[in-house]
Amino acid sequence: MLKLQDLWKLSDRFAAEHGGNPADLFAECGLRLQRPARRWKYFCTPRNSITIADLGVDGTHFGFLKLKNLSRELQPIVMTVPANNKHNYVIAQSLEEFIGLGYHVGWLSLDQIAFGPNKSKVEADFARRAKNSSPKLEIMLAYIRTGLKVRHAPLSFARLADLDKRFGKFVDDGDEKDQTKKEKTAQASFLNRAELTKVFQTFRDAVIEKETFRGSRRDHRLHRTMGTAYHRLRSSGEAGGVLLSKLLSDRSPKVRSWVATALLVDGDPMARDVLEEMKDDIGGREGST
To answer: Does a cis peptide bond (omega within 30 degrees of 0) precede residue 46?
Structure first.
């Protein structure tokens, strides 16, 4: 039976062998371990949970769902997503299944369970090693697989629906019950705006940095960061749309090009106008030389 302490011990061993911080092993694979485990106090963190890790973006975090007569490692894992309308998702029946979800690609994109527009694509992304995966990521994932002796746990929305049916009723939705509807809505709205602003900046910084590290090991990770940030904004309704429109008029042509191309694929009519304008601008400069 896989225990939380096994993750900590493996992190310590990796740091001793390779140098660096013990947190680096899982963090490089998209999972920041909470050590020691303790319940986070977001307004939507289940009261009957204990937080064990987070993604490092949007406040998304993971915890054991404390159920009677079950040892900790056999307790379901709940993912809490403060920035989404639905906040809590039971995503694994045990710690071992949770770690197995990241077997091929790590855990960075698990929030796509909440934000991903295409379920079959999300399932496929976790089903196999990512193309152009960075060597560093592959080394660390291999170290985790070998050290913990875990197996791949397929990410399936049918499985998630079954877990929700069996365990969702036990999720005590955090401090929401202590708030009036007005207070809860105001807090969620403020958090959402603040988090979306961070996502907006993350996307912009990644595009610009990607040009600097083109072809390097970091290039693929930056591309994943851009994709996650874009889908987060795209799935955030009017607030996300406002920020995407702002990116379409960014001073950086690289940023305008990236977001316009992504929006064009999604059928957004504004994107075509921006790309045509950029094309005309480039043609005009070439004609004047």
So the answer is: no
Report in angstroms the alpha-carbon separations of 169 from 67, 137, 145, 158, 162. Answer: 11, 36, 32, 17, 12
103 or 84, which is more confident: 103
Q: pLDDT digit string (tens) for 40-62?
A: 988 889 999 999 999 887 789 99
Give CA–CA dist 238/257, Å, rounded: 21
Nearest to 235 by CA among 89, 77, 58: 58
> pTM higher than 0.70, yes or no?
no
Whether 189 and 238 have beta carbons less than 8 Å apart is answered as: no
| Alpha carbon distance 92, 240 (integer Å) | 29
Residue 10: count other Cβ atoms within 10 Å of its Cβ.
18
Pairing of strands 49-54, 88-92: unpaired
What is the Cα–Cα distance from 182 to 151, expressed in whole angstroms?
45
Percent of the chain with pLDDT over 90: 43
Sketch the domain layout of the chain as residue ranges. Answer: 4-176, 179-287
